[in-house]
């Protein structure tokens, strides 16, 4: 991501002195690892140069979408409130923490930036680097008092992206969705929190090494798990549609990536608070409303252990296993007796 959030760490074991971090900026950071993941994932959409016709076409599409952004935001707000207003009351989240004007302003600025990057032919991964500072600040601001607010905020952003995609020409939707996925990822996932925690370690600390091994494989692991779940549950239908539907598959991939990032955040912080205080309440708020079965969640979490152990190696399993076990218990049949 951007240098403000990058993790520069030293080469000795133990905790690093924060004052020395700027002097080690040349060392590969977790944020750079995450950005590199986008390069691999989005190579098909990444073009170094665009022809004049392509540039003009993109400018026209971006201009049209920016013009309707205000009405799109209003439509997204209606959908978000319809979906989550009851859950907000049920979870006793203060309505004062959900400010429609602040959220609408954030949405407008972020999607203006996304559409500007698309119009200029800036690749999604470069946009990810540029946008991470703003989105990290937005996420931090909205979760400062009550982390559960991120459920409402991220859903508003998500619906905006969906509506904008639907309003775009069919030929441009796939490309635009690559930019909107960046927005989704940076809001749903506590990447900035993970980077902050990582800054407390020396570069070769084994706990940080385990995370560095796992982070580039996040998308691959998500694809493996979602493919297995679709195969095992071919008739399952959620609020949006069957698991094999393109939109549902995209959301499922994001969710499996999100679980991984929360787990690695707990590993770096060496406590379970990120999952217990943010991920778990977020799931309890969203999944029943979206008709996501708890048995399906448990299946995904069980498959995750197999993928992670193969990725980081048996010697590093000890770093994530306590946090993974705690997460598994949170979604167990004892808590949610909901069969698949």
Briefly characterize the structure.
The chain is an all-alpha fold. The protein has 14 helices and no strands. The radius of gyration is 20 Å and the shape is globular.
Give the key terms:
340 residues; mainly alpha; Globin-like; globular; 68% helix; 14 helices; 2 domains; single chain
Please tell me about this protein's structure.
- The chain has 340 residues and is mainly alpha-helical.
- It has two domains: 30-189, Globin-like, CATH 1.10.490; 205-340, Phycocyanins (Globin-like), CATH 1.10.490.20.
- It has 14 helices and no strands.
- The chain has helices at 30-41, 52-67, 69-90, 100-120, 124-143, 149-167, 170-188, 191-198, 206-214, 218-232, 246-269, 273-286, 294-312, 317-330.
- The relative contact order is 0.12.
Topology of this protein?
Elements: H1 30-41, H2 52-67, H3 69-90, H4 100-120, H5 124-143, H6 149-167, H7 170-188, H8 191-198, H9 206-214, H10 218-232, H11 246-269, H12 273-286, H13 294-312, H14 317-330
């Amino acid at each position: 991501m951007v240098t403000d959030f990058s993790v520069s760490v030293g080469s000795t074991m133990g905790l690093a002195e924060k004052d020395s971090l700027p002097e080690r900026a040349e060392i590969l950071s977790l944020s750079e690892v995450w950005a590199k993941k986008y390069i691999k994932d989005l190579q098909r959409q990444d073009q170094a140069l665009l022809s004049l016709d392509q540039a003009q076409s993109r400018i026209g599409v971006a201009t049209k979408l920016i013009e309707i952004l205000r009405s799109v935001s209003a439509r997204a707000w209606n959908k978000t409130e319809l979906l989550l207003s009851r859950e907000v009351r049920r979870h006793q989240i203060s309505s004062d923490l959900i400010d429609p004007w602040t959220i609408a302003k954030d949405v407008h600025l972020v999607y203006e930036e996304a559409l500007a990057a698309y119009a200029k032919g800036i690749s999604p991964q470069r946009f990810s680097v540029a946008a991470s500072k703003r989105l990290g600040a937005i996420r931090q601001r909205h979760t400062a008092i009550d982390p559960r607010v991120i459920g409402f905020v991220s859903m508003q952003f998500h619906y905006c992206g969906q509506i904008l995609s639907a309003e775009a020409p069919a030929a441009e939707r796939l490309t635009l969705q690559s930019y909107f996925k960046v927005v989704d990822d940076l809001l749903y996932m506590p990447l900035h929190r993970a980077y902050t925690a990582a800054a407390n370690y020396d570069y070769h600390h084994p706990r940080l090494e385990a995370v560095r091994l796992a982070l580039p494989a996040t998308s691959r692991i998500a694809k493996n798990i979602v493919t297995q779940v679709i195969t095992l549950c071919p008739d399952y239908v959620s609020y949006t549609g069957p698991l094999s539907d393109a939109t549902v598959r995209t959301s499922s991939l994001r969710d499996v990536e999100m679980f991984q990032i929360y787990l690695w955040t707990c590993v770096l912080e060496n406590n379970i608070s990120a999952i217990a205080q943010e991920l778990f309440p977020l799931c309890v708020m969203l999944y029943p409303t979206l008709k996501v079965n708890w048995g399906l969640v448990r299946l995904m979490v069980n498959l995750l252990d197999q993928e992670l152990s193969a990725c980081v190696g048996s010697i590093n399993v000890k770093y994530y296993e306590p946090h993974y076990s705690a997460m598994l218990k949170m979604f167990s049949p004892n808590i949610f007796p909901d069969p698949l």
